[in-house]
Design goal:
By secondary structure, this protein is mainly alpha-helical. It has ten helices and no strands. Helix 5 crosses helix 7 and helix 9 (252-260) packs antiparallel against helix 10.
């Protein structure tokens, strides 16, 4: 009798389990379709935006002198050379400043810092800073670099402001990349008597470089495309000379803002052409970073 009861209970449990599996699979299919629909909607909207931009700006972008001349008061004349040079210089300085500082901070927090209350406070603040609006960093850069350090509305002020904007993202992604390195790799190195700094430089960092470069790609792309912080720092919308580090400067986002705010219809096409130039610059920088990431990937 007991055996029959146990058999019946097991059959009921098996039937209930089968029903749960089927319902979970159905629910999973529903969510898969919803997520795929969301992806397709995002791709469709992006494709529409790109089509509209290239339709309006490709002819102006291919105009001789658009990339090599200085801006003009007329929409069908002049170019964006100072803005391109400024954006390239801004990107280079941001990379040179944020990568060593950001990776160094991530290494200290993950490998050396003790687990104490003050490190927890630092980690929370870094995570919060990654979501702060860029105009707040512009106000910080205006107070520190323009006035306190006396750089004024120069390119170096804009570059350091964008570096502050990029640092939290790089620190967070670098910490995640370092944390993902298996402890067995560290323990094997320590077991052979290798010093900690040598273990980090020879084993931890090479393993984490691909993921760290992903964070660098995201942060630098955001910095190059940012306009709010540069407007606050003092970037101009019209420049007739190639900028230097301690001179007034432009940037491609500021050039786009300057063009799109003018009432003449031809400037809308110039703004679309400038957007194409900015997209190509970001794609080129991302391509270099992706190549370096693949080059250092550990297979």
């Amino acid at each position: 009798m007991t055996t029959s009861y146990q058999r019946d209970d097991s059959l009921d449990s098996a039937a209930e389990f089968t029903e749960n599996v089927e319902s979970r699979e159905t629910l999973g299919k529903v969510f898969e379709i919803l997520f795929l629909l969301g992806l397709l909607i995002g791709i469709f909207i992006l494709a529409l935006l790109l089509f509209d931009i290239f339709r309006d700006g490709l002819a102006r972008f291919l105009t001789p002198g658009f990339l090599t001349e200085t801006p003009s008061r007329f929409p069908d004349q002049g170019g964006i050379r100072p803005a391109i040079i400024s954006s390239i210089l801004l990107g280079i300085i941001v990379i040179l400043v944020t990568v060593p500082v950001g990776v160094g901070a991530a290494l200290y927090l993950e490998e050396y810092a003790p687990k104490a209350w003050w490190t927890a406070v630092i980690e929370i603040n870094i995570s919060n800073l990654a979501g702060v609006p860029s105009i707040v960093y512009g106000l910080l850069g205006l107070g520190v670099f323009n006035y306190l350090l006396g750089f004024g509305p120069a390119l170096v002020s804009g570059a350091f402001t964008l570096s502050l904007l990029s640092l939290p993202v790089i620190i967070v992604t670098a910490r995640e990349a370092i944390r993902a390195v298996p402890d067995s790799l560290r323990n094997a190195s320590y077991g052979l008597g290798v010093a900690k700094w040598r273990t980090i430089s020879s084993h931890v960092l090479p393993y984490a470089v691909p993921s760290i470069l992903t964070g660098v790609i995201i942060s630098v792309s955001r910095a190059i495309g940012d306009a709010a912080s540069l407007i606050v720092v003092g970037a101009v919308g019209f420049l007739t000379f190639n900028p230097g580090l301690f001179q007034r400067f432009m940037a491609l986002p500021i050039q786009i803002y300057s063009y799109i705010s003018r009432p003449e219809p031809g400037f809308a096409n110039a703004a679309a052409a400038t957007i194409i130039a900015l997209l190509l610059l970001i794609v080129a920088l991302n391509g270099v970073a992706i190549y370096i990431r693949q080059r250092f990937s550990i297979h």
